[in-house]
Amino acid sequence: MPDRLSALDASFLYVEDPATPMHVGGVAIFERPSQEFDYEDLLALIGQRLVFLPRYRQRVMAVPGHLARPVWVDDVDFDLNYHVRRSALPAPGTDAQLFDLVARLMSRPLDKDRPLWEAYFVEGLTGDRIALVTKSHQAMVDGVGTIELGQLILDTTPQDCEPCEDTWAPRRQPSRGQLLLDAFSETVQRPGELVENVRSAAQDAVATAEKVVGTVGGVASALRTVARPAPAGPLNVRVSGGRVFAVVRTSLEDYRRVRAQHGGTVNDAVLTAITGGLRQWLLSRGASLDGDSTIRALVPLAVRDVEAGEFSSASFIGNQVDSYLVDLPVGEPSPVLRLQHIGHAMAEHLDSGRSVTARALLRVGGFAPATLHSLGARAAGSFSGRIFNLLITNSPGPQHPLYAGPAKMTEMFPIIPLVRNQALAIGVTSYHGNVYFGLNGDRKAVSDVDLLAGMIEESLEELRGMHW
């Protein structure tokens, strides 16, 4: 049987256009180790691990006439050097230069005639640092059969990057006749799919995505909270092809102090810091806010099977997230009241018993921030953009060092793709005592994303300084 894309995976290909490439990404920054770690070493490391990720050596092949969804086939011309690329920043090699490069890389769609991923080894950073920028298409990363590339190459201890003999041999590509025969065979069994496949390929991608909304696992539960369209504002505009990228660096201990002082969860405090930053950003643009003004965020959370044992690997529903719509109270001037509003909204979702706490995720192997961010982005892509203003993914990461080969990772920033008519997406990840934000924005609509990043930091400082 052909390895056919699921309806959801295919929808990410259909909905993609030059202005909204559907890949999730990440920026990892490393200390350059005392022993050599260069581009060739990264090639060797990724080459070692590809045996565990067969999808990363496969490309998408369309069925003639779009009589069925596309299939995955081995790339007979697979070239690791094409996918793993080398780049260098000009002097002085600042973080601002790196993030400008990241924005340009993330704005470029992946080549659909090749496996749908890329990695960039970036040298020239100040402080003798190196960076790894990854891009993986949402059609690939389902959290079960395929995880995000960054998850596979990171280890808890330094590793050698010895080249290994590659015994992989691509399977022969199916002919057009074989693709058509397989499609006709499936159509006999499920005749209704023929109309759906042709309609989807004819760019009715939004209808396709909404039709399969439940396949991400529970995302339809968010619809219970929708009583009206998302509030209008500067975040919901037609997205251009350009991108801007900014980051926020904060301490995990700050959020824990807020939790200890005011209650709630670390996630509540993160959302409150974002809310305060958005409030100041809107005011800086001359927005008129009243006490009831809100911005609606789509907040995906991993879920578990309440029938399974607590915190066992079997209790986690592999590639499923519940996506909750949370109205962020940007009109509320008090940071403590903002925290209370958000805590109350999130508690309703957590009381369902399905949501996974950060501590629980960290107890179970196989979960990594990059993959969970991708699942959150998949959930967002399944919704109409009319019901939320921005996507916020928050995935806990390990609180111990990770390594790519011998290189110690010091920072990690998620990059969440923009969907149609949404000009900002925020990814949040905790790692080794810190919490890192990646803000991906549209270059025209959110050109001042670095200003917003600074306001999120100020919002956290304000929240920390508040007392009852």
From TrEMBL:
Its EC number is 2.3.1.20. GO terms for cellular component: plasma membrane. It comes from the Bacteria. InterPro entries: Acyl_transf_WS/DGAT, O-acyltransferase_WSD1-like, O-acyltransferase_WSD1_C, O-acyltransferase_WSD1_N. Residues 318-463 form the O-acyltransferase WSD1 C-terminal domain. It catalyses: an acyl-CoA + a 1,2-diacyl-sn-glycerol = a triacyl-sn-glycerol + CoA. Keywords: Acyltransferase, Glycerol metabolism, Lipid biosynthesis, Lipid metabolism, Transferase. One of its GO terms (biological process) is biological process involved in interaction with host. Residues 5-270 form the O-acyltransferase WSD1-like N-terminal domain. Pathway: Lipid metabolism; Glycerolipid metabolism; triacylglycerol biosynthesis. It is an enzyme of class 2 (transferase). One of its GO terms (molecular function) is diacylglycerol O-acyltransferase activity. It holds the Pfam family WS_DGAT_C. Belongs to the long-chain O-acyltransferase family. PANTHER family: O-ACYLTRANSFERASE (WSD1-LIKE) FAMILY PROTEIN, WAX ESTER SYNTHASE_DIACYLGLYCEROL ACYLTRANSFERASE 4-RELATED. This is Diacylglycerol O-acyltransferase. It comes from Amycolatopsis marina.
